[in-house]
Amino acid sequence: MTLAETKPAPARPASDKSRRRGQKPNMTGSLRRGGLFIVSIVLGLVVWQLVASHFGPALVASPSETWQGAADLWADGTLWQSIWASSRRIFIGWALGVVVGAPLGLLMGRITIVREILDPYIEFFRFIPPIAFVTLAIIWFGIGESSKIVLIFYTSVFVVIINTISGAVSTDETKLRAAASLGASKSQILRTIVLPSAIPHIVTGARLAMGNSFLTIVSAEIVAAQEGLGALIWTSRNYGHIDWVFVGIIVLGALGFLFDRVLRVCVRPLRRYGVKV
After folding, report:
1. Whether 147 contacts 138, CB under 8 Å
2. 186 versus 210: which is more confidently predicted?
3. How far is CA 148 from CA 44, 250, 263, in A?
4. Which end of the chain has fewer CB atoms < 10 Å from its terminal CB, N or C?
5. Residue 14 confidence (pLDDT) above 70
6. Rounded CA gap, 192 and 269, in Å?
7. Does the keyword Protease apply (predicted)?
8. Cα 179 to Cα 187: distance, rounded to the nearest angstrom
9. Picking from 155-169, 215-229, 233-247, which range would have the lowest pLDDT averaged per residue?
């Protein structure tokens, strides 16, 4: 007498219901974050309205007055022209800062003589605020776009350099010795080991430099600028349009938020190098 072999039942594919159950936590988390975001905005508007009611329109524009001011500026094209002018200057100056700062930081981080020569200048100039060079920038580069872009480049490049140096000097020495023992040249080591190790630091430096660019754009546009958010804020202040001042400030914050989110999306392919955004 033989015992019949019992075969295990084949695993059944997960049903749509179970898959939906697995998705519920993610959907719930997204809804929760969205709800909290809306609640935060509403609370902020309520506090803003209370402050505006207390101090009056001469000092603080209310949300409705700010909205009306934005509508008026948008209707005559002033707001869009200001957004476009400031965005263009910020992007060009910031991009130049990253393009120059990242390679220079890599060289300073791995080549001692380059670091010893340039380090005193980096440490000296990075503590001087860009607004101190506004007058010189206008004298040297004129009242056109160049002076504004140079100031934004100045405020961006040092942040990228410092962060890139940090990434370059923190490269795993074991990997460096292994590559050297296998016959890799210095340029190959810099390109294949040091650069991938420094990429997270470069991305961090680029994000911080973007923030600095927005901090600089107002001071860069206050002097000898006909358009731009900084010029809009300064002109509105001179004419007593507090609502337009609030519009310029809020648009600057929203634009910075948008720029940072776009940058985070663009660097997602670099996650394999350890970038976390």
Report:
1. yes
2. 210
3. 33, 21, 22
4. N
5. no
6. 17
7. no
8. 11
9. 215-229
Cα–Cα nearest to 49, from 248, 211, 246 = 246
Over residues 188-206, the mean pLDDT reads 88
Q: What confidence tier does 33 reach under pLDDT thresholds 50, 70, 90? A: confident
Q: How many CA atoms lie within 13 A of 112 on its CB side?
A: 0
Closest CA to 71 of 259, 251, 252, 255: 251
Question: Token match 């300073």: residue?
Answer: 108
One-letter identity of residue 145: E
Alpha helices (runs of H) in the chain, residue ranges in sequence order: 16-55, 63-75, 78-110, 112-125, 134-141, 145-169, 173-181, 186-189, 195-222, 229-238, 242-266
Q: Can you state the angle between helices 63-75 and 242-266, rounded to 10 degrees?
A: 80
How far apart, in whole angstroms, are the C-alpha atoms of residue 170 and residue 196? 12
Q: What is the pTM of this model?
A: 0.82
Residues 6+ apart with CB under 8 A from 218: 229, 230, 233, 234, 252
CATH number attached to the domain at 63-273:
1.10.3720.10
Amino acid at 256: G
Give me the half-sphere count of Cα atoms (radius 13 Å) on the Cβ side of residue 258: 10
Residue 95 pLDDT more than 70? yes
Percent of the chain with pLDDT over 70: 90
Q: Where are the domains of the chain?
A: 25-57, 63-273
